[in-house]
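Exercise 7. Given the components listed, write out the predicted structure of the assembled complex. Treat all entries as one system.
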Amino acid sequence: MFCLGLIVNPIAGMGGRVGLKGTDGLAEKARQLGAIPMASIRAGRAVKGLSELRGDLLILSAPGEMGETVAKETGLSVKVLDMAPGDPTTAADTRRAAEMLKREGVDLILFAGGDGTARDICEAVGESVPAMGIPAGVKIHSPVFSRTPEAAGELILSIIRSRVEGKGPLFNLQEVLDIDEAAYREGYCNTALYGYLKVPAARQMQGRKAGSQISESGAQNQIALDFIDRMVENRYYFVGAGSTTRPIMENLNISHTLLGVDVILNRSLVKRDASEQEILQITQGMPYTIIITPIGGQGYLFGRGNQQISPELIQKAGKENIWIGATLQKIGTLKGEPFLVDTGDPETDRLMTGYVRVTINYHQEMIYPVA
Amino acid sequence: MTINGLKNHPYIPNSVPEVQARMLKEIGLSSLEQLHELIPESLKMTQSLMLPKPLVSEYELKRHVTRILDQNTHCEKYLNFLGAGCWQHYVPAVCDEINSRGEFLTAYGGEMYNDFGRFQALFEYQSMVAELVDMDVVNVPTMDWFQAAATSVLMAGRITNRETVLVPDLMDPDKFRAMANYCSPKMTLLPVGHDPVTGQIDMNDLKTKLNTGVAAVYFENPSFLGFIQIHGNEISEMAHKAGALSMVGVDPSSLGVLEPPSRYGADIVCGDLQPLGIHMNYGGGQAGFIATRDEQRFVMEYPSRLFGIVPTVKEGEYGFDDVAYDRTSFGNHREHGKEYVGTQAALWGITAGVYLAIMGPEGMADLGRTILQKSTYAKALLNDIPGVVASRFKSPGFKEFVVDFNGTGKTVEEINKALLGEGIFGGKDLSAEFSELGQSALYCVTEIHTQADIDRLIAALSRIMGHA
Amino acid sequence: MKAIQRNSKVRTGFHQAKWDEPIIFELTQKGERGIQVAGTEPGIRDRVGDGIDSIPEQLRRKIPPALPEISQPRVLRHYMRLSQQTLGADVNIEIGQGTCTVKYSPKINEMLARLPQITELHPLQPEETVQGIMEIFYKTDCFLREISGLDRFSFQPGGGSQGILTIASVFRRYFEVKGEAEQRNEIITTIYSHPSDAAAPAVKDFKIIYIGPDSDGYPDFEAFKAAVNERTAGFIVANPEDTGVYNPKIKDFTDLIHASGGLCGYDQANANGLLGVTRAKEAGFDMCFFNLHKTFSTPHGCGGPACGATGAIKRLEPFLPGPHINAIEGNDGKQRFAFDRTFDDRSIGKVRSWYGVAPVVLKAYAWIMSLGAEGLYETAKVAVLNNNYLFRKLMEIPCVDAPYIRGKQRVEQARYTLEKLTKETGITSGDIQRRIMDFGLHYWTSHHPYHVPEPFTLEPTETPSKEDLDEYIATLKHIFEEAYNNPDIIKTAPHRSSSHQVDSSWSDDPERWAITWRCYLKKTRQV
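Answer.
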């Protein structure tokens, strides 16, 4: 029996249609403006195809509008979480529901919402429970969402089918990104990385003319091998946050953080999750290289995440000692827009502008613009 | 100066001026010259290419091309004993019938939903070659044996993370060149010596060269010079002991009678499909295959497509799909990790499948036996000619053998020239590429040779040697 | 008689052949024979016995190969049925193979290539017995020299990727001879060149540097300037790129490479729209390759045999794979053809057996002869006309867009996006790919990873008529309407193909995948 957790953020997506750019704290206003609860409809589209799994699937759902209504329409067995969400529902309700689903030991949390919802799920369960989003929000920057609601349903179907065959699905850690909605409404677009969710990997079905495609995780590993091969002795390497840089540590057998900056010397760990001050102390008079990856979908190199790497540190390193890694898939999410730097120090930002060499695979680089 | 086009050409529907005018109008242009707007004038041609006048009439074209081709003297007119990697076998009519089918002939890279037949035919081809070589996994064809062997070398490099492959020094020099080019600068091919009497791989030299840097030992059965490597088991065992793979290149036409390499320890088997129902085509009929066991460590290192059978949403229906499309393991390698795959030789794969289907186990056994009998017969008769030794190497052989003319006082070049005068293509002259063999030639005898053909060769050679 | 109302534009009544054919092993019937092998005369048997005893016991095959045993008519029927379930270019409006030029392969050329005067030639026959085929090789080489402006072609490369490998191998060898191989180890390409332009040089251990498009959609010259340096071995690029965008500054790119001591290789896989219009030489390239099986009409054969004829300027000739064919004057004053079989020390050696796929070279020769200079020019003009007509008509459909070089013409193909359709209906480009089969057509998305979201790539060439293009457009429109009105029919497509949707999860799992029939039987415990 596969146990699927379901959380719908019923107010997600209401803001966009009425021009509010997100509903964080504005649900009532959105409703007054005549917004329709899109999230429930989209969640319905996702779970519609699951009804054929009767007997093999149990849905554990948040109550009422938060999932129960949609779940019951499938005709599948549904168990409802014992909680009382507010009206309108809040971020705290989402987080609580996710925590309860984790405790119940669900196999996967399926949630309908936007980046804000993903943040809440991430905050509640992190990477401990597989999760996947049904795109229903205004802001969909995080690659934790399926392309379409139906695609989410199909992926769950295939996971359950392969489980019947005794095989587990593959998961990728994907970034949870969000922008500051208040700033966004003012016309600024500031994205930040909030963490990672463990998302089932979808298999590409199209466009096969040649064999041996390399998967994104394979490409990330190749980037790590490239970096490792370029490392020299008696030099510090500050490895910034991200799933792209993580395989460096894995290949070196070093424990590491995901959101922090780790310091390596001679292929060994010097300091895990170092703070700005610690980094500055370590570098006294010693040569060093900074290894970072841009934030997917937005392209920030510095300024959103990696705050521990101060402008001073960047200045002293110089452009040639900043190694940037990103898979072609990730660069594709930028749609040709340049990388961004927002360190708070205009001079440092200027230093990075122009073109940089991004490592995209082992012995493969791309010349990419920085705005 | 404007360049003129050729209107109302039978191959180009829209070369009709009126249609062109209509289409141009629809896209807001008035002349064909306005197309190619992004090409700078400085790069545009100002006059027509200097090419021969077109032969638009199909009849004229046919006359022209056949007139050129008629200058060729082909192997159905002359008696042919050339082999050396391209062999004259009988091509059953069904093979040509199938590979002439417009659907197969003109298909390309469609999905299984478009090209179901192509997927099934190639899956069946893989499956039948798998039976022939007694391995569980076979790829969609590579360009040729050269490519299959070169790719096998890189696969071995990826699997073992080592950089040297040992090869027999008596291998095809062209194949060595192609493999060396493909594998350099990452992998090195190191030749192993041979026993001068038998041609067999020198086991002592092999032992000396087998160290922990060796990814694989590659040898062929039958070898390039036709003799059979009889120490396959020992070679494989030695390779395995050194942590290396055993890689065997094989002529599939021998596998009705010879043990498949998997039976003497081969981990990777490769070879050429041309003997399996494909015309020589002046060397254009080559196609390669690679086979391994069904183990993840091998399967994940194929750069080629592998078609697998899968269920569809409809019960009782066969479907096909690319197996292990995401070769994630490629992500775990550095320089050995890189290979690509493009257009190779799929139509020859389908053809080889048709051939194996009509030959069946009995046909392949008959083929092997016939070749053994006829080549043995030819060797025996050649050996009877004073001064001629067949074969040069004292080892069992299959299909090809080295004829040593050193005792005749004549060069192979002289002999072959004389044979040509008798309407016979003598064997490949080895004197330049294998100088230690002196005046020797590589002869190929297959099922297409009749007793009369062989007797004719013997009579001609006897005359040339002044014995008749 | 009543008028029969048939949808004249969209083939709503299409159904591909579906024979529900067994796997060939299931046809086996013990004792059946598909063919009898030429036998051995008693005279031979008397002299040498059964032949098998010449093989050492341990090397004789003990268990015969488990090949099927089937009589000839049943084998023929099986394969005829499989062929009918294959959508070759002979039976459909083949504009949907994306970046892979597919055009009409004239039947006369096929017939010529199947004459015994070519099929029964052995590659080592004495030169005087193969003058005809040598003439074909030599003259086709001369044609390609004229079409490209370069000085010598090798027909050895068996396809486009091997052509690029040959270019990369020559580049490496060139710098080895100059003693600069260690230093010059980078190849620059563009993101919208064919992926092989990066993958094949990587086999030769080059580091690959990619350039993306600038804000207008052309390869970014500023990024290129940032890429070129003393480590640059060369630049290998398609132009037009797979998006159909032609880089008008190409000469500036090649000049910059030459100024820094590098070499330039031209991926001419998209050359069809440029024949007789512009050449590799004038654009500053030192090497190039043409796909004879694409641009020069020879059929694709389900993926080969093929030829990626690769050419070089004079200075790089010695580096090409050998042997070469030269025209020389015979004693009688007549032109004859001779091999130069000496391998220059600088040559990369061999990339494929013998001299390349001779029948493919012959078919390309015949195709060029049937068109001449004016016909090649017409080919290019009509191919570009067809592409821009198709482009204009498709861009009128609201859910279709194409990024880059807005308002400008495409050359040989175009890459479109269905991002809007996907957002509005959930139908992806991959779904359309399956659905269009229900109307007897092909459609291709793009290589991975997608840089253009929900992409599709069409390359009409000169082959389709205006009506053919209109049918393709009408079919796409019909499917887009379905996406809005009846998306389920697309999601569950194909419905009228030889097969239904497969579950790919089987193919990723070593415990379940079955690459051969014997694997299938083992894994389903049927043996």
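Discussion: The first strand of chain A starts at residue 2 and ends at 8. The first helix of chain A runs from residue 14 to 17.
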